[in-house]
Amino acid sequence: MIKEWATVIAWDNGLAQVSCDVKASCNSCASRAGCGSRVLNKLGPQTTHTITVPSAEPLVAGQKVELGITESSLLGSAMLVYMSPLLGLFVVAALFQVLFGTDIAALCGAVLGGVGGFLIAKGFSPRLAARQTWQPVIISVGLPPDLIRTASSSEMSQ
Questions:
Q1: Where, by residue number, does the polypeptide cross the bilayer (predicted)?
Q2: What residues contact 1, with CB distance under 8 A and at least 6 apart?
């Protein structure tokens, strides 16, 4: 099970809307100024994802929850997204090379196969996402933010 903490935005009739922060590939090393991964992460427009997760327990905004998703669903979706365009690219490029015998035909076949594989992945993904085993679940729930109180040292001495 792959786990991640999220913050509750809203809860209504057994459905919690939660926000997950996107983690950068690396953020802790000393060479942040010259890091190519950091530059690429800054280019991405989205820093949080909002999803809806079923929750029988009432939740309040600001409360932390731990979400979990099975490894098989994550690996399956990654295989679909990455392998179907790649497989389409190679298969259609090889087919066009055999049928037409030119490099330009193989190039056109590669483009058509890659786009076709992408469209196949896009068509299958809603059906796979609808599976119950591919849905994230709430594993544990943190305390509501109004129950946590901190006191400074001057408040404690009074």
A1: 74-98, 104-121
A2: 68, 69, 70, 71, 139
Contact criterion met (CB below 8 Å) for 71 and 34: no
Q: Contact at 8 Å (CB) between 63 and 18?
A: no
Q: List the structure tokens of 19.
A: 């926000």
Q: Are 117 and 93 in contact (CB under 8 A)?
A: no
Which residue matches tokens 């098989």? 72
Distance CA 6, CA 56 (A): 17
What is residue 25's predicted lDDT score, i.e. its pLDDT?
55
> Sign of the CA dihedral 94, 98, 99, 104?
positive
pTM: predicted TM-score of the whole model, two decimal places = 0.67
